[in-house]
Amino acid sequence: MEKMSNQLQPEQGLANEGLVYRALQFNVLITVMNTTMFNVAIPAISMDFMLSPSEASWVVMSYSVMFALGTVTYGRLADQFELKKLITIGLSLLGLGSVLGVLAPSFGVLIVARLIQAAGASAIPGLGMVLTARHIPLERRGRALGKIAAASSLGFGLGPVLGGFVSQFFGWASLFFITLLGMMMLPVYRAQLPDEVRRRGHFDVAGMGLLALAVIGMLVWISTGNDWFLFGLISLVLFWIHIGRVQTPFISRQLLTSRGYVPLVVLSFLVFFQYFAILFMVPLLLADIYQLPTMGIGFVIFPGAFCSALASFLIGRWFDQASPIPFFTGGIGLLMMALILFSCLGYFSFWLVMAFYLLAAIGFTIMTTGIPREVSIALDSRQIGAGIGFLQLCQFFGGAFGVASTGRLLEYNTQPHVIFNLWWEGPHVEYGHTFALMVTISFFALGVYLLHLYGQFRKQNQDKDEEQEDLQLTK
């Protein structure tokens, strides 16, 4: 009962909740756009610095690796330090990296700027969820998370449009000015976030280092296909051994073996796997089949992201008022439906591509709104920081794995002997094959969620049996 009470009641309310969440929405929007904007600018960057494709990929890869590590690190630090101070550090690093990027005279300086940017930007999504779990009561928590999901969805769609426009007319270096705007919200956090009591604890530097090596090894293996997989796997095994030996590990084994938490992490991994695969394939499909320019691709993606952002507000309220089961089932079903339709009719019209992407974006928004809310309920208040940080690490890893896997499948499916999707009748059949293979991930996600529901059902029955036994003993 004490644990449930801690989950339902916030530690301390916010004096001006609306202002704080408007600032948080703006920063989440900037953070997500910072990822998608630079994707469309890579050709221009490659031309300016005379880069090969493998070298240019580090513009995205360096940011991705640091962002993945930063999300879990900030989440872990949130268990010991004030959110106000951590957000201040994050926004300051984001600003510093942006200024350095504007002035970058060489490719090496550009990579350093992206690393500093990621070290700061990674504070925003994770700490925003920790802030929600710590300071917003359960009856309004879904609505608050819906606001964050809305900004994230809008950023996914607005990033390519704005990035293409700014790069084309003002140069790719001007993109750093957009991320510099994120510092405007710093006074809001400094004034509105409550002062928190610092929690004593030891920060597990060795554990963080081993996890960093594991993540770097896995991500580099995904992107290059070389032997870094073995390096990442060894680091992961050492990390597991290490956290079982230290008193205050970077991520506790108790968290990583929680029956209520782990299925949600796996489900989130699979959801991001699917959506990032779609987000990666759709621009390529629009360019290869419909010959759309960068601006046109952005405008095809934008309606889905914009509509899902508007829907996020309603989705958050619905999660607060009803059972999450139909929403999770619907979110997984929309992603599955979008992939099936892409695999059958993606070649037919770019208007249909726009509609299919809308389905995927809304399904993704449902899941990204609901999963953090369920995690905040499943975990003890002392585990929320580390739990949400690790959740976001796995989300990002799922997205990276989806993109890399999709790229390899597209390459393999160009071989003439690969024919198994008979519904695709247009050119570039490799897209039809790859979308069809992605449907299997949707079925796997549905299976994971059903197992999670079964585990919850068993736990509820066990709790009822224990309560009845306690009543009989008291009588």
UniProtKB/TrEMBL annotation:
Keywords from the named record: Membrane, Transmembrane, Transmembrane helix, Transport
Record's bilayer topology term: Multi-pass membrane protein
Residue ranges of every copy of the Major facilitator superfamily (MFS) profile domain listed in the record: 20-459
Species for this entry: Caldalkalibacillus uzonensis
Localization of this protein: Cell membrane
InterPro entries: MFS, MFS_dom, MFS_trans_sf
Protein name as it appears in the record: DHA2 family metal-tetracycline-proton antiporter-like MFS transporter
Pfam family, one: MFS_1
Chief location category: membrane
Keyword Membrane tagged: yes
Spans through the membrane: 20-44, 56-74, 86-105, 111-132, 144-163, 169-189, 201-222, 228-248, 260-286, 292-315, 327-348, 354-372, 384-404, 431-454
